[in-house]
């Protein structure tokens, strides 16, 4: 059998020329990346007549979130530099990815998570991949402070997005968007938590533009949960709250870089309420058939908010919204906001009657 299709090699191998790697860098990969850019068939119309909308569905990465892109880089470089143990703070997705890629590399991982505020699927992942998992009495911000201090004083490699290799890996998502579209979009919408991802995308778009791979760069649109919106408010939030636990962060590590991305791209950052997030989350799955986690839906919630103010009126434009994590990460939330399934006996007539057929 002959085939012209090339197997996808993972983001490091695919984009090696744009990454700080050499032939000596081991490729610790689960073949992450190459996630689909799914065209919206229904929801796009709500933004405006001339708007083309795509969802970059990062939930289809090997551990179910965009974190795999950064983690393949961070762990590969850690192994190259001789590390035997990684550490990170996480609201759940970073820890899942750190645990998976550390397992793949044959090294230990330690994850610190806010006790009681990590979605079930993510907790299951850290445990299943064999991370030493510590639930801390405190928010993500406290976990991050702890791992910074520990990694400065003990032989463990920090793999939060303070680690520059994380951003390097995550920027590949912007390359993929340009490769799929054949150009950069006009707008790129993202949920913002620790602000690593918006920083990475902006870096990626900038580098592709400079390399002549994209004629333009998009305006970056960032969305924070209203109860955890330090960048929008311009001040740290000491008690961040939101049901979108992935972005329940009051003091983002990449705050300044995020501001740069927003300013340089002439974009904006907004807050979306938990009600808006839940509505957006439900619409994405029930209208478009794309099941993402609540934090990811902040992208669509924010776009709708902007459209409501006439932001896209009269514009012919292409908008990409990153859906950062898979809906199965947080099964409790999905079940909690849905209506209970109806119960029925093992009987055709009853079920047909219930369905009104
Ligand atoms: N969406 C999801 C699903 C996330 O898990 C995160 C961050 C974000 C959006 C925001 O990205 O932090 O780069 O601005 N999750 C981190 C974690 C904090 O620990 O998994 P960001």
- How large is the radius of gyration? 20 Å
Shape: globular
Order of helices and strands: HEEHEHEHEHEHHEHEHHEHHEHH
The largest sheet is: 6 strands, mixed
Bound molecules: ligand F0G
What's the number of helices? 14
Task: Summarize model confidence as the mean pLDDT.
Answer: 97
Number of strands: 10
Termini gap: 48 Å
Q: Beta-strand level of the residues, as a percent range? A: 5-15%
Task: Decide which structural class fits the backbone.
Answer: alpha/beta
Helix content: 25-40%
Spatial order of strands in the largest sheet: 1-2-10-7-8-9
Low-confidence stretches: none
What does it look like?
This protein has 357 residues and is an alpha/beta fold. The chain is built from 14 helices and 10 strands. The protein has helices spanning 11-14, 67-80, 93-105, 120-128, 140-153, 164-170, 172-181, 196-210, 230-233, 255-264, 274-288, 298-308, 331-337, 348-354; strands spanning 37-39, 51-57, 85-89, 108-114, 132-136, 157-158, 187-191, 219-225, 268-272, 317-323. Helix 2 (67-80) runs parallel beside helix 3, helix 2 packs across helix 6 (164-170) and helix 11 crosses helix 12 (298-308). The radius of gyration is 20 Å and the shape is globular. The relative contact order is 0.15. Bound molecules: ligand F0G.
Keywords:
binds ligand F0G, single chain, 10 strands, 39% helix, 6-stranded mixed β-sheet, 14 helices, 15% strand, 357 residues, 4-stranded parallel β-sheet, alpha/beta
């Amino acid at each position: 059998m002959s085939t012209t299709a090339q197997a996808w090699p993972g983001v490091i191998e695919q984009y090696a020329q744009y990454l700080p790697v050499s032939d000596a860098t081991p490729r610790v990969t689960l073949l992450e990346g190459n996630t689909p850019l799914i065209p919206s068939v229904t929801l796009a119309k709500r933004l405006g007549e001339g708007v083309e909308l795509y969802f970059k569905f990062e939930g289809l990465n090997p551990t179910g979130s965009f974190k795999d892109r950064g983690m393949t880089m961070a762990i590969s470089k850690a192994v190259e530099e001789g590390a035997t143990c990684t550490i990170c703070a996480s609201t759940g997705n970073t820890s899942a990815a750190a645990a998976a890629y550390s397992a793949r590399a044959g090294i230990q991982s330690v994850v610190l998570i806010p006790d009681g505020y990590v979605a079930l699927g993510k907790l299951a992942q850290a445990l299943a991949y064999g991370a030493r998992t510590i639930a801390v009495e405190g928010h993500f911000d406290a976990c991050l402070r702890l791992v910074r201090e520990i990694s400065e004083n003990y032989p463990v490699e920090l793999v939060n997005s303070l680690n520059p290799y994380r951003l390097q890996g995550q920027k590949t998502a912007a390359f993929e968007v340009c490769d799929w579209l054949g150009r950069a979009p006009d707008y790129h919408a993202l949920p913002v938590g620790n602000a690593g991802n918006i920083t990475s995308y902006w870096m990626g778009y900038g580098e592709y533009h400079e390399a002549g791979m994209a004629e333009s760069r998009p305006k970056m649109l960032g969305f924070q949960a209203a109860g955890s919106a330090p960048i929008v408010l311009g001040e740290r939030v000491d008690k961040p709250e939101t049901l979108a636990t992935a972005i329940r962060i009051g003091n983002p590590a990449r705050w300044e870089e995020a501001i740069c991305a927003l300013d340089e791209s002439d974009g904006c950052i907004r807050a979306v309420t938990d009600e808006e997030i839940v509505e957006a989350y439900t619409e994405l799955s029930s209208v478009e058939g794309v099941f993402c986690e609540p934090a990811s839906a902040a992208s669509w919630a924010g776009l709708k908010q902007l459209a409501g103010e006439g932001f896209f009126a009269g514009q012919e434009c292409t908008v990409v919204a990153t859906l950062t994590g898979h809906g199965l990460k947080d099964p409790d939330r999905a079940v909690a906001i849905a209506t209970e399934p109806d119960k029925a006996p093992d009987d055709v007539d009853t079920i047909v009657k219930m369905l009104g057929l």
